[in-house]
Amino acid sequence: MNTMTQAMPMPVHRRPSAYAFEIRLELVRLLRSPAFALPVLLLPVAFYLLFAFAVAGEMVAKDPDAGRYMFAGFSLMAVTMAALFATCPLLAQEREQGLLTLKRAQPAPPGAWLAGKLVAGVVCGVLAYLPILIVAAATGQAHLSGSQLTAMSAVLVAGTLPFCALGVMLGSLVSGTAAPAYANLIYLPGLYLSGVFFPLPKSMHFQVPVWPQFHLDQLVFAAGGVDKFRFIPPEIAAAVLLGFTVLCSGVAIYRLKRKG
């Protein structure tokens, strides 16, 4: 008599609840962590208030394009930083501690843990962006109509996915203790060198296509109909971000299959 038992696959009707349970746990863990929630969810709106109102308030009042530029830049910072840091460090820690191997042995859909991290990254990006959107809509400091804000918001939310993929890739490659440092090392230069916060001199324009932040910024401006700061067609920017997402996802899948 064979004493070995084979795990039965989860019934199809129970899989949505398993995915929802994993997503809820991931969000609760992130939002209950002060080391994540406070800087990632509050810093972007704090910086937006500081620079768009206190430092450059007079300039924004005289030049509407300056208000649009700052809104796009700090909104992009909010969604992308939250997406990256919601996925990278925790995944690296779980992989290093062997928790991913344990999850594979549990009677749950194989992709539930990954779906939880991706959805949590998107939700955290939205939570970080909402205060900026509320401030911009209430004060008119961004000089954008309701339809423009809606279109730009849709692009910003979709723009969390490439940075979720980047976070999963980094989390699959580096150790748990080193993950935040590597994430900052890759992410922060892209914010400044892509011209998201301030226009770059022409001598530095050659390197901006390297950064995914630049391409997302171009899509945000295209969605809002802000032509002054557009340098490449939106189709090219979307293709680059899609390729970046596929590349990061492919590396992560290959690494997790080999090393778990």
Summarize the structure.
The protein is an all-alpha fold. The protein has eleven helices and no strands.
- H/E order of the elements? HHHHHHHHHHH
Q: Can you count the helices? A: 11
> How many strands, which pairing sense, and closed or not: the largest β-sheet?
none
Strand content: under 5%
Find the count of extended strands (DSSP E, 2+ residues): 0
Low-confidence stretches: 1-7
Nearest-integer average pLDDT: 88
Please compute the radius of gyration using only Cα atoms. 20 Å
Shape: globular
Q: Report the span from N to C terminus.
A: 33 Å
Estimate percent helicity: over 70%
Structural class by helix and strand composition? mainly alpha
Set down the secondary structure blueprint:
Layout: H1 15-31, H2 34-55, H3 57-62, H4 64-97, H5 99-105, H6 112-139, H7 146-158, H8 160-173, H9 179-193, H10 212-224, H11 234-259
Task: Fill in the keyword field for this structure.
260 residues; mainly alpha; 75% helix; globular; disordered N terminus
Polypeptide structure, described:
The longest helix is centred in the N-terminal third of the chain and has 34 residues, at 64-97. Mean pLDDT is 88; it is low at 1-7. This protein starts with 14 loop residues before the first helix and ends with a helix. The protein has helices at 15-31, 34-55, 57-62, 64-97, 99-105, 112-139, 146-158, 160-173, 179-193, 212-224, 234-259. With 260 residues, it is mainly α.
